[in-house]
């Protein structure tokens, strides 16, 4: 420990791993937890009380799909009774307007609706189900209720060109915030990475487009953009630093420093059924392991940026460098950066080749569909010319 | 963005004060929390949909009578603009 222990500010409550969607980039681990192991209403209520006592301000209800919990209204009331601010991160299924009304009445503070795209076809392909039309209905219901709304578009190579349409959708809604969050590569997204990573050209266009949107919409909609860190020069300050600000509880009650922490071998996790949350925060091996700076290697150890990005992401270091104490390989200063560059080179040249062969087809007159040339909304990038990938869909737990 | 002195700011949906009464108090909002104390708290407490921007300015100019009134006004408008940019405020239009 090199600094005084801070307290967590947000509790990420994975209420369940059950979900009607099967998104190919789901942030849940590959090993999903079964319904029978889920914490009860009473156990969650105790966790909210302990979290508030520890200094937590906000609870993020997520999953899986939190609305699959039949006790969702009780859980919102319990978190509000503990004086927490309650965010619901949802696909909008299963929901109807009377249930939405009940969520608001129960004290929900913020409704965050995820989208897999602006158009039905790709959105349904990515989620492995027909969810898009329902989300459009939810947007209409939300207009009739006084609640904060954030739209979250998860971006990748297959949908990044729909950015102007996604922004229009946000502008026609009651959202005060919209997040365009590129997929980051863990869990299911790591398994499907080669089909998801955008090209450098796509990314550059999207950044230009959103900069203009941010200026135009200032004071109306707060526009946030998260780029895929594979393309960044420096790593993201993952989770605001390991065990510094956030605590995640899995459906069965395991306390994790982040969504993906279970990929790191040798970490011991505590369960909220057995120990008080404050004790877990203080002494859990998994939380202590990468706290502060003593675990760092060079170049992190003596780097001026170590207090800004905390060495980046431990899970990514393990996934890409097979060493959880390594500098995050996406960092331009990391010894393992060439691995990331090689991945980017492969993707970019493969997509360029696919585009070139599609263009040849168009010129020779064999194309069955004209190429999409509508660039009126400002972000013109060649439409993807790849065929549908062999996705690994996230299943539903038992 | 220029702020109408006759408009009445109030906290936007999803923005509310933490439920405790000792300072520093916290303004909770989507994905964020702002610690408030002293003048920032006095401004936000008056963003109740009742006070006009001009009334907030006048009240705080009286409270901080030793400070230059123009400077107080400038600080308040600057802080309201920051909260507007965070989408923490809605401005009820001037009375019709």
Largest sheet entry of chain A: 10 strands, mixed
Beta-strand fraction estimate of chain B:
15-25%
Mean pLDDT of chain A: 92
Oligomeric organization of the protein chains: heterodimer
Morphology call of chain A: globular
Kindly give the count of domains of chain B. Answer: 1
- CATH topology type of chain B: Arc Repressor Mutant, subunit A
Could you tell me the number of beta strands of chain B? 5
Unreliable sequence segments of chain B: none
Distance between the termini of chain B: 22 Å
Tally of contiguous helical segments of chain B: 3
Order of helices and strands of chain B: EEEEHHHE
Mean pLDDT of chain B: 93
Strand order in the sheet with the most strands of chain B: 2-3-4
Q: What percentage of the residues of chain A does DSSP assign to strands (E)?
A: 5-15%
Radius of gyration of chain A: 22 Å
**CATH architecture group name of chain B:** Orthogonal Bundle
| SSE order of chain A | EHEHEHEHHEHEHHHEEEEHHHHH
Overall form of chain B: globular
The biggest beta sheet of chain B reads: 3 strands, antiparallel
Class inferred from helices and paired strands of chain A: alpha/beta
Question: What descriptors fit this protein?
Answer:
heterodimer, A: 398 residues, alpha/beta, 34% helix, globular, B: 96 residues, alpha+beta, Arc Repressor Mutant, subunit A, three-stranded antiparallel sheet, two-stranded antiparallel ribbon, 3 helices, 36% helix
How would you concisely characterize the structure shown here?
The complex is a heterodimer of chains A (398) and B (96). Helix content of chain A is 34%, strand content 13%. By secondary structure, chain A is of the alpha/beta class.
